[in-house]
Amino acid sequence: MVKFDVEGSQNVNVSKIIPCEKTDLEQLEIMERYTQTHRKYSSASRARREVECQKVLFPTLYRSIEKQDLIVGRMDFLPIGFGSVTSVGGVGHYCRFDQLHALGDRLGEAYKPRIEKLYNYWLDHDVKTIYCRENLTDVTIGRFIDPSYPLLATARLSGMMLDYPKLLDNGIGGLKKLIASKKEKHPESADFYDCCMDEMDLLTECALYLADEAVRTAQGETDEKRKAQLMNMAAVLRKISVARPETFPEALQLLWLYALPAGVINYGRLDDFLGPYLARDLDEGRMSEQDAYDYIKSLWTMIENRRTTVNGRVIVGGKGRKHPAEADRFMHIALKVCKDCRYVEPQFTLRIDENTDEQTWAEVMDALGAGATYPTLYNDEVNVPAVAWGMRVDPETATRYVPFGCTEFVLWGQSTGTPNTLINLLKILNIYMNNGVDPMDGKYKLGPIQPKDMAKIKSFDEFYDGYKELLNYYMDLSVQAQYNSYGVMNRECSFLLNSILMDDCLERGKALLDGGVRYLGGTCETYGNINASDSLYAIKHLVFEEKKYTLPQLEEAVLHNFVGYAEIRHDCLACDKYGNDLDTADQMANSLYEFVAKGIRDRGIQIGMQYYEIVISNNSLNTEWGLQTAASPDGRLSGMYMNPANNPQGGADKGSPTQLLNSLSTFDARYHAGSVQNIKFSKPMFNQNKKLIEQMFKVYFRKGGCHVMVTVVDKGALEDAMVHPEKYPDLIVRVAGYSAVFVNLDRTVQEELLSRTLYDESRL
Question: Gene3D superfamilies attached here (predicted)?
Answer without folding.
Answer: 3.20.70.20
